[in-house]
Amino acid sequence: MASEIGQATIWLSAFSALWAIGMLAIGLRNRNNNAIISGRNGVVATFVLISIAVAGLIYGFLTDDFSMRYVAEGSSYYQPVLYKIAALWGKMSGSLLFWLWLIALFGTIFVWRNRHTKDSLADYALIPISVVMLFFTILVSGLIRGVYNPLSRFPNGGAMPDGAGMNPLLQTPSMAFHPPILYVGFVSLTIPFAFAVGALISGRINNDWIIRSRRWTLFSWLALTVGITLGGNWAYRELGWGGYWAWDPVENASLMPWLLCTAYLHSVMIQEKRNMLKVWNIILMVLAFEFTILGTFITRSGVITSVHAFAEGDIGVYFLSFILLSLFIIIGLIVSRWEKLKSLNWLESFLSKESVFVLNNWLLIALTLIVLWGTLWPIISEAVTGQKIAVPEEFFNKTVIIPGLMLLFLTGVGPIISWRKLTLSNLKRVFTKPIILALILLIPTISYLFLSGNIVVKVRSVYTVLCVFFSVFVLVAIADEFYRGGKLRSKRHEISLLGGFFRLIGRNKRRYGGYIVHVGIVIVYIGIMGSKGYFLLESKSVTNGQSIEIGKYQLTLKRGFEESHPNFELSGAEFDIKRNGKYIKTMQPARGFYFQAGQGEQDTIESAITHFGLNDLYIALGPLPQDASDYVSRGEPVSVQVYHNPLISLVWVGVAIMVVGGGVSMFEKNYKYNVKTDA
Amino acid sequence: MSRSRIKIFVASGILVSSLILLVFVGVKNTSLRHFRPEQLVAQAQEVHQKGVQIDGFIAEKSTSWDHGNFQLSFVVRDEADTARVNVVSVGKLKPDNFKDGGNVFVEGRYNADENLITASKIQTKCASKYQQAGSALATQEKYQIEAEVTQQN
């Protein structure tokens, strides 16, 4: 019954989305408030209907209804409950249904939050939201070749005796949460995009749409930041190759909207302060949204050969058509509103905050284009030359360094440079201290990073020196901003310096939350520099009692072991870890053996990871039989791969700081905008 | 046009040109020709001792692991098994999801004389499949689902 009801509600939601579009268009054109309210109700009705469908699918998972095809392909009897629920977004049609549900949810929240506003901008914005809902409803309806309705049953009325089960690699907490958080980031960008399009349609090209969409944009940015990081963390913990980012097309697909969203968040400050870059900001927001659809296209269409791509069905054509059609319409709207989009001011000086922000935009867009080019080059090269040319990880690693370092430098310059024109007094006042301190602290910082047990090899690249120098510069510049502001407030209000800091942040959450994000970015840069540039790797086969050495660590194989779990068995090897000859810890890397009906036996790498200060020791095992204790005690060889990943903890810590800063910034309340309300 | 505008345009031009050059050089120096196994075998001599990327299927019962040399050896075949390419990887573990008949991507240097890729990177297909594997009927047949079984239950 859940299946049949769910399928029916998906079909009905197509009508409610269409109703919403129609009623809103009619209501706005004829200034008919009843029609507008009916349109808003259409959005809410779509949410209710899709929620019933999602509930039906979850019910199918929790009751192990293997007559439902999607449930049968993604779950099994012994799969833990968390992963039964996570299976909702584990494959194509379920993930699209979840995407649709999120759009409808955010649309409903949007309707509720704007229920008392008398101006029409929000209602204009509801039209593109409803169009996106309609598009995704069509995708999950079962009409498209290659995408079945996720609530559908097997055609012959049968059922699998047990489900195929979720791939063992996905049965980890970080992979359970990575997709939904990333989807929240992608989907919530629909709202600021809708505001931008609504502003174009209505002709209200002032700062209203930016101000009213700001919190949504920050929310998206936060969700994308967390979602991308969870994906990297999962890869690090589960895949056994000691890394967290490989520039795979699917990874790139999530990074590009994040880069554009970051550019947008900076660029809008210029529009708000100086009424400049209006076209720029609309284009950035539209592109950020379109790149979320492009990312979905890359992941699902199979057009790009990658470890994530599976070629089947027509869905790629639909995504591409949506992107092209929507861009065509929006470009038309921009052209029609060109007079209103012209900037009222222009850059007065090459050395100014405005110029730095424009340069920041250019660099973020350049990074996006580099990533896009590298991702699409196989298709482009095949279309042009007939030969598919792949672009490996090395291309991305080498090409992004220089723009990345420039961005790092601007992260410190942007907050402290003056508006309009850099004066000599501004130069002396705010730049002298950070530059001098960065030069003084460069050597001690490098010594700390490269000695003291962190990175155990010498500096081998000028990029490293630049990265450290710029990082110290940024941290000192931002610390100085906090100190000067905090001290002023502490004096003014006769409170402690700490109290002054809190008051400072509280009075301008947006600005100082942004500075906290910049601190986090710097920490991430240092973490990436260490872990990507200076990791150590040792690969060796050892027998019982033998050791493998890496850096200052010595790992000695002591014994084998086995462990039983509800849906898998572990077979592993225990190592005693010594540093400089002194025992510090025991680590237990293993192989996991999963048995699932549809997938047969799978054995996976279950790495052991231990944090030593800012660094990780990471051990992965080669093939091992299930009786590891006997195997090892017989003196058989165990293949071991060990990584020393210096400063990698800074990557996760830096992201956490970014999230804190973004959260602080999101709660800026001191916005005044000219919106008439009933209240 | 004011001096500051000219400076800004010139600087923007330099920046854009530099980035284009960066991408061009990057692609030129790092790119790999991508093949399916049958394509690689057909053009073997053209790419002898050059970097290549192939995607195919792990040939059944072809995988072996040499503990002593930390070496993984296997064969990649095309879908119809009309062409095969040998692969050897030293110093790296077999990735997860690596199984007979499974999809695999290999990057490395190709030796046409031995029809061998010395792999620098091996990847298997992502565990998360964003696609429908064939028709529902095929799924039923694969998992031997019978309507009568359900009815009896």
Walk me through the structure.
The complex is a heterodimer of chains A (679) and B (153). In chain A, strand 7 and strand 8 (600-606) form a beta hairpin. Chain A has helices at 2-30, 33-62, 69-74, 81-86, 92-113, 121-140, 173-188, 190-202, 208-238, 249-274, 278-301, 315-336, 338-341, 353-385, 393-399, 401-416, 424-450, 462-493, 497-507, 509-533, 628-633, 649-666, and strands at 389-390, 536-542, 547-550, 553-564, 568-579, 582-587, 590-596, 600-606, 608-612, 615-621, 638-645. In chain A, strands 3, 4, 5, 6, 7 and 8 form a 6-stranded antiparallel sheet that branches. A 4-stranded antiparallel sheet of chain A has the order 2-11-10-9. Chain A folds into 4 domains: 1-171, no CATH class; 177-193 and 203-339 and 350-391, no CATH class; 401-532 and 654-666, no CATH class; 536-645, no CATH class. Helices cover 62% and strands 11% of the residues of chain A. The model of chain A is unreliable at 672-679 (pLDDT under 50). Chain B has 153 residues and is an alpha+beta fold. Chain B folds into 2 domains: 1-30; 32-124, OB fold (Dihydrolipoamide Acetyltransferase, E2P). Chain B has 4 helices and 7 strands; from the N terminus they run H-E-H-E-E-E-E-E-E-H-H. Chain B has a 5-stranded mixed β-barrel with strand order 2-4-5-7-6. The longest helix of chain B is centred in the N-terminal third of the chain and has 28 residues, at 3-30. The termini of chain B are far apart. At the A-B interface, helix 3, helix 5, helix 14, strand 1 and helix 15 of A face helix 1, strand 1, strand 6, strand 7 and helix 3 of B. Strand 1 (389-390) of chain A pairs antiparallel with strand 1 (32-35) of chain B, so a sheet runs across the interface.
